[in-house]
Amino acid sequence: MKYLLYLNHPHDEKVYKVNKTKEKRARKYFSTVSTIETTIDIRGEKIKAIVDYDIFNKYANFDCFHCQDDCCGDNPMIYEKKTRKFILDNLEEYNNLTKNVDILEEMGLEKKEIKDSIKKDKCMAPEDFIECEVKNCTCSYKKDNATTLCSIHSIALNKNLDFKEIVDLKPLVCSLWPLEILVEDDMSVAYITLPDDFTNGFTAEDYYKIACINYELSTSPIFRRYNPEGFEEKDYKPFYEAYGETLKYGLGEKFYNDIIKKLEIE
Ligand code: SF4
Ligand code: SF4
């Protein structure tokens, strides 16, 4: 089994491979919880999906503008061609936000080498500078010297691109995170849930570390230490509502409609 959203991760199978113990736990989990069968459409590829639908009722609050957590800590995938083109077409704005061009020029690179790197290098910056001079995800930036945001998303918003276009431009894992999608090695079936609590232990992320799907954590001292304002309880909404558009454009209308239909029935 593999973690579907990490299939194009720069550190390849070290990240996307599900180990045998976790695979066993995942199979057991999906054989015991209530699920529905549907189809996901990921960047044009249709895959049968078994969905732990009840998790879509879970409360979530993606208040990224007020969050100080560095969930853009590293590059989540080898960038797609269209994202590279978008950055090159908006290089000045990208540099104003991230300072990456200035930094690489200060390190001795010519503008042409920087552009070539955006076109060809896995993380859109030369390997030697990743996690050193270009720390965190290449595309991340600090808004007003504080909250970490995504330059791809911000540039797209400034250009009035719609949500579908934004989901198409950003790495899919960034739009769909923290949804967990495991897939068979031959890509025949995907299994969808959210990061779990301590009971299952097969997901790539841990539920108890993600305040956007864990209100209790957002009120805890450890979260408040880095996010003094915390999150408002009233801003938490069911996941299917908080992520409605993202689910539609990231996994397809059929997937979204099947989930909603099932949740309305129950
Ligand atoms: S941890 Fe959640 S709320 Fe915070 S920036 Fe990341 S996705 Fe947004
Ligand atoms: S959301 Fe943007 S900045 Fe954050 S990890 Fe994804 S591409 Fe990088």
Descriptive overview:
The protein is an alpha+beta fold. It has 2 domains: 152 residues, no CATH class; 83 residues, no CATH class. 40% of the residues lie in helices and 13% in strands. The strands form 3 sheets. It has a 5-stranded mixed β-sheet. A two-stranded antiparallel ribbon has the order 4-9. Strand 5 and strand 6 form a beta hairpin. The protein is globular. 34% of the residues are buried. Bound molecules: iron/sulfur cluster (2 copies). One iron/sulfur cluster binds next to loops.
Keyword list:
single chain, 5-stranded mixed β-sheet, two-stranded antiparallel sheet, about 270 residues, 9 strands, globular
Walk me through the topology.
Blueprint: E1 2-3, H1 13-16, H2 20-32, E2 36-42, E3 45-51, E4 59-60, H3 81-89, H4 91-98, H5 100-106, H6 111-120, E5 140-142, E6 148-150, H7 151-158, H8 163-169, H9 172-176, E7 180-183, E8 189-193, H10 215-218, H11 221-226, E9 237-238, H12 239-242, H13 244-251, H14 253-265
Parallel strand pairs: 3-8
Antiparallel strand pairs: 1-7, 2-3, 4-9, 5-6, 7-8
Helix pairs in contact: 8-13, 13-14
The site of one iron/sulfur cluster has 10 residues, from loops.
